[in-house]
Amino acid sequence: MYGTVQAEVRQVNRASDPRGCDDLPPRARRYDAAGTRSALLGAAELRFARYGYDRCSVRDIAKDAGVDAALVYRYFGSKEALFDAVSTSTGLFEPLRHLPLNEVSAWICDVVSMGPTEEEAPHPLLTKLRSSNREETVGRLREEVTEVFSQGFARRLEGEDAELRAELLAAWLMGITLLRLAIRSPALATTPDDTLLRFLRAGIDPLLDADCPGRGGEDG
Amino acid sequence: MYGTVQAEVRQVNRASDPRGCDDLPPRARRYDAAGTRSALLGAAELRFARYGYDRCSVRDIAKDAGVDAALVYRYFGSKEALFDAVSTSTGLFEPLRHLPLNEVSAWICDVVSMGPTEEEAPHPLLTKLRSSNREETVGRLREEVTEVFSQGFARRLEGEDAELRAELLAAWLMGITLLRLAIRSPALATTPDDTLLRFLRAGIDPLLDADCPGRGGEDG
Amino acid sequence: MYGTVQAEVRQVNRASDPRGCDDLPPRARRYDAAGTRSALLGAAELRFARYGYDRCSVRDIAKDAGVDAALVYRYFGSKEALFDAVSTSTGLFEPLRHLPLNEVSAWICDVVSMGPTEEEAPHPLLTKLRSSNREETVGRLREEVTEVFSQGFARRLEGEDAELRAELLAAWLMGITLLRLAIRSPALATTPDDTLLRFLRAGIDPLLDADCPGRGGEDG
Amino acid sequence: MYGTVQAEVRQVNRASDPRGCDDLPPRARRYDAAGTRSALLGAAELRFARYGYDRCSVRDIAKDAGVDAALVYRYFGSKEALFDAVSTSTGLFEPLRHLPLNEVSAWICDVVSMGPTEEEAPHPLLTKLRSSNREETVGRLREEVTEVFSQGFARRLEGEDAELRAELLAAWLMGITLLRLAIRSPALATTPDDTLLRFLRAGIDPLLDADCPGRGGEDG
DNA sequence: TATGAATGAGTATTCATTCAT
DNA sequence: AATGAATGAATACTCATTCAT
């Protein structure tokens, strides 16, 4: 299904399979466990991010990787395990632990701009969002959000309801990723980063402020 | 797959079938086209919202509705048509056309609170979000967002980059829906509406303001 | 399947349902048993001849006839019975009983020219040929051929192996019908009747001759 | 549908699998791609010839072949492709290109006698005739007849209307095949070949003659 | 290590048929 | 007499997974 993404994956494949390069002996090509494993990972990353768990077949992934489908089971055990391997936290949220609060907007801007916007490259968040119909994926997302935002980042926020404010930040991050990379709404998909950043600040910085929500309730 | 949600659907079915409210015996209701149709719609609504398009089988939906799977084809023509019938715009965004800007936060608050939070009821947005791996769904989402936000709502915003700001609003709406109803992150899933509202204002109202992004760039 | 042949059938339908004609009261239109029955027969005749038993659905036939599919069962009992009713001997071979032998070629010519060649009209033989994958149809064909040719017509032939010669005649009749009306091979489908007749004679008349096969065996 | 023809197919399978002719134990033959493929072909050949395309299910064919139905898709891609593989021209008509005209009758006699007459073996022409309700099959038959008879063989005939005469020959060939092998009319199904041949000559040779139709029109 | 042969459960969809109205 | 609601079995096809090589 969905044609092939072989061309691109082949590159990925070659990146980790530098046959014909210089120092690596050019003989070993098949029977290259590490290479096969990472080729599968690369292909899966792409497929899963693009089509979601359910619309990817193990065979398609294997074909993209240029190996036999049975190897998915040899190296990962199951389609699900492969997905887990691919969608396992990539340290994407790591910066949130130490980043100065006034740089958070810029970081979010970076995150939602990852990958070539044109061709829906494998964005780590998108992989999960695209498969958010799977209970397991949702569970992992909950754990991750809880750990990173509700517990981790919230602790760095002064003021009331830090937990909620952190999750609102997460919500925006996900929403923008979805609209910009998956749904590709007209403005978000095309706006240059610096413009986006200015508006992100407008919405985010108040949330990070110590006296948020401020006196905002008055005029409601 | 995924056992049965029959019990609940039966309720939905009856709840949305306001005929013979009290004295009609609730049994013997075969040969009731309208009832069957709406039972199927109800069951599909629930299943699709909960598991997404790919993880719902026509058979399961029919079983939930208590009818034969072939009736899906009699009444809707295909699984896809049934999904369309369920996910077709329900006028959810209608209020955005006339609502005073300072009530937008409250409206968002309402939207993301729709349906019993405990049991992941069929939220119209969630249905689409859960199936956002389907190209058709993504396409429809893009159309809807474009029409309602990028074109419709943006026109009501003064200041620069109205389109982008409108889409950022949409992004937040979707992100919060996702976190609150699907992912169920700890704070968002439990925070009472009025509390949520106060913080929503803090993030949203600046975006709606005529001189957004204001002088926010200074301290970055 | 296969679009609709409704237009034509409607005519058939009207032919046997002369509403708005002159002397028949224009009220009776629904609740017209005979009319419904014959409308179904007409539609079935067309469909079966065109697509064969297996590629016709009862619903399509009923739709062509402009009535509900259940009426097929009311009036005929089953799809199979409807097919039988349609394919039951129409006296097509009746002339073979008395026709002078030297007019047989001309008669065959007539038979294979029945119905508008362009639009594959319901040819009684074609109906059976198109469904010759059904055991029942084959059985009936065998009976019919046996009765009409092997027993009936053969008795009128002098000379040896009359039975075989009669069946060879039947074979040619069927083969030409198939090629001319179903397969529509270039020459047979377009050749005018009088030309065809001249060549039919060349092949058939020897078979009907009393001293057939004559001295044909010599040069083999 | 139609029970099983397993027993016979197994034979066919083994007969056409000339490996380990004697000493190889006939059991234990899994993981044998070529064997599986040809078993499927054999089973399909038989089923299709006997029941026609529409009355054969992929499952039944697979069951006859003793393998899983999914393998039909592995090896052929679709039911239709399997049918094509089975019904693809087998060079049956090849002899018509060079055969001396006075041996044509004998060749036809051979063709219509192919396969055990008793048990409706897979005759290449019968396969197509039995599925002549399919548009694709009819189309292929038209092409084949056109190429082989209307164009190829006709060129070898002297005299007028060669094309028509060639098609009349084809018609007879098909009609006899149908009556002899499918319908099994009493005489044709039992007559020995040499007798049949004598009468075939009587009908066919005149058609092949250079001055056909001769002066046959006089006595009509 | 890698391949590809084999499987069985599952999917959407169609259809002849029956039942209540 | 006629309708259309309902059913269940069947169909072609796909896919994750396992087994022999």
From TrEMBL, chains A, B, C, D:
InterPro entries the record matches: Homeodomain-like_sf, HTH-type_TetR-like_transc_reg, HTH_TetR, Tet_transcr_reg_TetR-rel_C_sf, TetR_C_16
GO molecular function: DNA-binding transcription factor activity; transcription cis-regulatory region binding
Matches recorded under Pfam families: TetR_C_16 (PF17920), TetR_N (PF00440)
UniProt entry keywords in alphabetical sequence: DNA-binding
Residues of the DNA-binding region: 57-76
Domain HTH tetR-type: 34-94
Annotated protein name in UniProt: DNA-binding transcriptional regulator, AcrR family
The organism of origin for this protein: Streptomyces melanosporofaciens
